[in-house]
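Hi support team,

I submitted a single chain yesterday and got back a structure, but I'm not sure I'm reading the C-alpha cell output correctly. Could someone confirm the output below corresponds to the sequence I sent? I've pasted both exactly as they appear in my results page.

Thanks,
R.
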Amino acid sequence: MKNNSENMHFKFDVSTFRLLGRELITDRVTALFELVKNCYDANAENVVITFENVNPISTNSRIIIEDDGIGMSYEDIRDKWMVIGTSSKRRNKTSPSPYNRAVVGKKGVGRFAVDKLGSCLIMRTKKLGSNELQCLEVDWSRYSAEESNQLSLDFEDFNEQNHPMFTDMDNRHWIENGIETQHGTILEISQLNDIWTENDIRRAYKELSKLVRPTLDIKYPFNIKIRASQYQDYQDKKVVSSALNKATLNYHLSFRYDEITKKYFQEYLKEEKGNLVVKEKEAEIFGPIALSLYYYDKNAKRNFAKGDRIDGVKIYRDGIIATPFAEYKEDRDEQKDLFGIDKRRWSGFFEKLSTRDLLGWIDISEELNPKIIDSTNRQDFVDNGEWTALKSFVINQVHQIELLLKHQKSQQKSENHEKLKQATEDVSSIKAKIEKVKKSSALLSPDVEKDLDDITSKLDTIKLAVDSSAEDLTQMEQSQKAQENLFFSLVSLQSYAAQMSHIFRTSIGYIKRSAEFVAKWVPIGEKQDKVVKHAKIVFEDTNNLSKAMDFMLSYAEDESTFEYFDIRQAVYEIFDERYSYLFEEESIKVERIVEDDFELLYNKKAFQDMFGNLIDNSAKALRNVNDKRIKCSASREKDSLVIMFSDNGCGIPKENWDKIFDVFFTTTADFGGAGLGLYIIKSRLESIKGSISLEDNEFLPNGATFKITIPLKHE
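Hi R., thanks for writing in. Yes, this is the structure output for that exact sequence:
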C-alpha cells in the first residue's frame, strides 16, 4: 500500500478577529479594561484615556489610550503582539525589573478588545533610548469585509485556497521619528462602534477605579486619567477608588506561614456572644488569602455621593482585579453575584446582608492559589473544589457579621423594651410626687394647682402613649415572627407539593385502572374475586388521596397555633402514612420508636414538617447506599422531649458540622437541595427554646445522627 501521509497545519478562518474580539468581549468597558491592563503589564506608571468627539459619532471620533510603559521594538511587535495567544506572559510571570509586577494579561488575546471599541487601530510605540517610533495599522473593517465576501459565495463554489485566511491578511507597518527620552505606547482607535454618553464615561470611570485593589501599597504607582472634553466632570479626571472610611464596620483578615510545620494558617471571623473574634486555622484547599470586608448601614450609605455604588466582594490577583470585571448592569438584579451573597436573601425574612451592604476584596496570588482559575469567557471562575470552598468561606465570613448584627439588634430590642417599661414607671413616679406636693402644700395658688393638674393630665396621656407603643412593639415582633413562620410553611409546602404530586399521580393511576376493571367485569358478573380486589384498591387509594388533601389543607391553619397532640400518633402518621410510599420506592428500612405515650404542646404541623425535612435529607444521602436505613427514637428526659434521628447515608464531613444549620448551605444541590430545611428546623426550635445538634452517628461506619430537644413546658 502506497504511503501517502503528509503533515497538516491548523489555519484560522478570517472570522477569527470577531470570535476573539467583539463576541468574546461582550462589554465595551471590559474591552477598555483589557487594554489598560496591558499598560499595567508594560510597567506604565501613567495611563491617559482620551475620548474625542464621541457624542455623536463622526469621522473625527477617537479613543486614545496612551501609557508611559516600556514600549515595544519591531521584534516585540512581530514576535509577541502579532502572535495570537502568545506565551510570553505565561513564561515570564512578572514584568521587567525594577517593577516586577505580576502580569495579569496572560491569554494573549487582549489586543482583540480594540475591535469592540472601533474598527481601526493605529498603534505607535517606542522603547526608551530608541529614536524610532514603531507604527502599526490594523483595520478590522477589512477583515469584516473579507468575511462578508466569503459568506456571500455559494458553498459549492467556495474554494478556501483562493481566499485569504486570518493569518494571510496584511497589516501596514512603518517607522516614524521619535524623541529618544520618550517611551511607551499610544493606541488610537477610530471608526468607533458606539456613542459614549456622559453616563458611559462615568461607568468606565467607576469600573476602572476597581482595576487596582484599594489600599494596595505598591512601590511604583499606576495612575489612570480620563479626558473627555465634551463633559465638564471629565476634563482631566484621575481615576481613584471609592472612599472606604465611611463604612460602619470593617474587618481585615490575613494569613501566616509557620516555619516549623511548613504550613499556612488562615485568619477567620467567629461571632461569640456579641463580639467578632479573629481566630486562626490551617489554610483550606484553596490556599491562604487576605480578605477585607466593609459593612455599611443605612446611615453610612447616606454619605455616599449620588451614583456611587456598594457592590459586593471582588477578587484581586496580585493586586489587579480578576474575572469577572467590568460586569456592570443597569439593573442591579442582573449583575453577577459572584459568591452567591444575594441568593441567600428571601424578601428580608432572614436579615441577610446583600451586595448593597458590603464592599470588600479577596487577595489571591498565582503562587498560593493556583487552582482559582479565570474562566475563558471572563465572566466567572473555573468551577472546581477549590473555588467552591472559597465561596463557602466568604459566605461564612459574611454570615459571622450577620450574626453580630443580629445580636446587636436583639440587644437593642431588649433595651427598647426596658426603656419603655422604665418610662411607664417614671411617669407613674412623677404623678405620685405631684400628688404628694399637692397634698403637703396647703398654700398652693390656684394657678399652680391648675398647672399641676394639667401636668398630671398630660402625664396620663404620655403613659397611655408609652403603654400603647410598648404594645405595638410587641405586636410588631409577633407579626414579624408570624411572617417568618408563614415563609417557613411556604418553603415546606413547596417541598411537599412535589411529594403530593407523586402521590396523586400514582394513586389516580391505580384508581383509573381498577375502576376500568370493575366497570368492565361487574356488568357480566365474572371475575368476582378480582372485582372485589380492585374495588378495595379504589377505596384505599381514594382514602390516601383524602389524607393527602387533609394534610395540604392543614397549611391553611394558623402557624402560631399551639395544641396538645399525641407524639406517638404524630410520628407514626409521618412514617407509616405520609412517607410510606417513599420508603417503599427507595427500599428504605425504617425503625421508629416512641418510648412513652405522652402529649406535646406545640404546633403539630411544624413538628411534622421537621421530620419531613429530615427524611428528605436522608433520602438524598442514601441514594448510593445498598442497605438503606433510617431510625427515629423519641423519649422523655426530665422536662424535655429528646428525639434521635439517624441514617446510614453518606454522612456529613466534620468541617461542615458548624455550617449545616446556616441558611442556604447545602451539600445536595445536585438533588434539588436548597439549604433551607435544617435552618428552618433550627429557627423554629430556638423560638421555643429547643435545639438541634449533629451527634456522632449511631450507624457505623457512615451516616448522620441529629439530636432534637423540645421543652415540654413553655413559658
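A quick pointer for reading it: The two ends are 95 Å apart (CA to CA). Let us know if anything else looks off.

Best,
Support desk
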